[in-house]
Amino acid sequence: MSTDKITCLLNWHATPYHLPLFLAEKLNYFAEEGIKVAILEPNNPSDVTEIIGSGKVDLGCKAMIHTIAGKARGFPIKSIGTLLDEPFTGVVYLASQSGITTDFQSLRGKRIGYVGEFGKIQLDELTRHYGMTPQDYEAVRVGMNVTGAIIRGEIHAGIGLENVQMVELEEWSVQQGRPRDDVRMLRIDELADLGCCCFCSILFIGNESFIANNPDKVRAFMRGVKRGADYMFANPAAAYELFVEMKPHMNSEVNRKIFQRSFRYLSHDLKNVQRDWDKVTKYCKRLDIVNDSFVQNQTNEFLSWTLEPERPAGAVNPTVDTGVLAKCGCKGQAAYVPIEA
């Protein structure tokens, strides 16, 4: 059945950092820009690049390293902007019960969880970097629920984000009577001497044929998202309440804390950062994901506003009080209830 709606597939289930996209729908910015957008959530985040590349969905969100890898695999996808810049990413663990320390070799003999195959590629490369082999640890594919797998004891640690899985585990730890700082991270950018964490920047991507055939719709989509982002930065607490109206499960303390932790990473101008693309392309070559002939699949041509100058590598905005916790209305609820993968 044909439709005049643009389809947009998230990289994961709806998460607080997706707020600018949902605001564009909630506040009718997409409609005012002359487009209709259907926001979809994947059953399996590993399928996103293939689904968009096949043309079954027009646009979507995906991490930078997966966007590069998808193109290298022959999926015709391209980044048209950035949603979330440089969240700290690494091996997340509970210090009190995992036996893991700041020494990477403490992962020897441990069960380490990852979401998709490129997480394992990263771990395998790091083991070689630190004088180990991929056989020195047990890789466990846990899908979307690294947090739940750690809580259930299925893995000793897992690859996660500072602004999502660490928040979930911190809230759970407090609930168990343990301190928040029991949750630790071995940051991959520091372990791999990358100089930044931009490989997990969340991008807006699209099917190349759709982009080429519908440039006006793509520009309208990005204008709508930019208006949503502008509203969010100006009114973070009010913006989050609108999100709660669309997604009632966002009215939890843990999701509000994820939003507050994510706020400093959200992109103000939505641009693809050339410095980050260069770093991640080089990293992908090191991981043998792409070769020297790879041409970056990204553009800023659909961003019609003035773009901010690039900041120094690794620079992030300071954490600010967004006001979302003051409006929580969820005191007494469980801080974190693990979601089955």
TrEMBL record:
<dbReference type="InterPro" id="IPR015168">
    <property type="entry name" value="SsuA/THI5"/>
</dbReference>
<dbReference type="GO" id="GO:0046872">
    <property type="term" value="F:metal ion binding"/>
</dbReference>
<keyword id="KW-0663">Pyridoxal phosphate</keyword>
<comment type="function">
    <text>Responsible for the formation of the pyrimidine heterocycle in the thiamine biosynthesis pathway. Catalyzes the formation of hydroxymethylpyrimidine phosphate (HMP-P) from histidine and pyridoxal phosphate (PLP). The protein uses PLP and the active site histidine to form HMP-P, generating an inactive enzyme. The enzyme can only undergo a single turnover, which suggests it is a suicide enzyme.</text>
</comment>
<dbReference type="InterPro" id="IPR027939">
    <property type="entry name" value="NMT1/THI5"/>
</dbReference>
<dbReference type="GO" id="GO:0009229">
    <property type="term" value="P:thiamine diphosphate biosynthetic process"/>
</dbReference>
<keyword id="KW-0408">Iron</keyword>
<comment type="subunit">
    <text>Homodimer.</text>
</comment>
<dbReference type="GO" id="GO:0009228">
    <property type="term" value="P:thiamine biosynthetic process"/>
</dbReference>
<comment type="pathway">
    <text>Cofactor biosynthesis; thiamine diphosphate biosynthesis.</text>
</comment>
<protein>
    <recommendedName>
        <fullName>4-amino-5-hydroxymethyl-2-methylpyrimidine phosphate synthase</fullName>
    </recommendedName>
</protein>
<feature type="domain" description="SsuA/THI5-like">
    <location>
        <begin position="16"/>
        <end position="239"/>
    </location>
</feature>
<dbReference type="Pfam" id="PF09084">
    <property type="entry name" value="NMT1"/>
</dbReference>
<keyword id="KW-0784">Thiamine biosynthesis</keyword>
<keyword id="KW-0479">Metal-binding</keyword>
<keyword id="KW-0808">Transferase</keyword>
<dbReference type="GO" id="GO:0016740">
    <property type="term" value="F:transferase activity"/>
</dbReference>
<comment type="similarity">
    <text>Belongs to the NMT1/THI5 family.</text>
</comment>
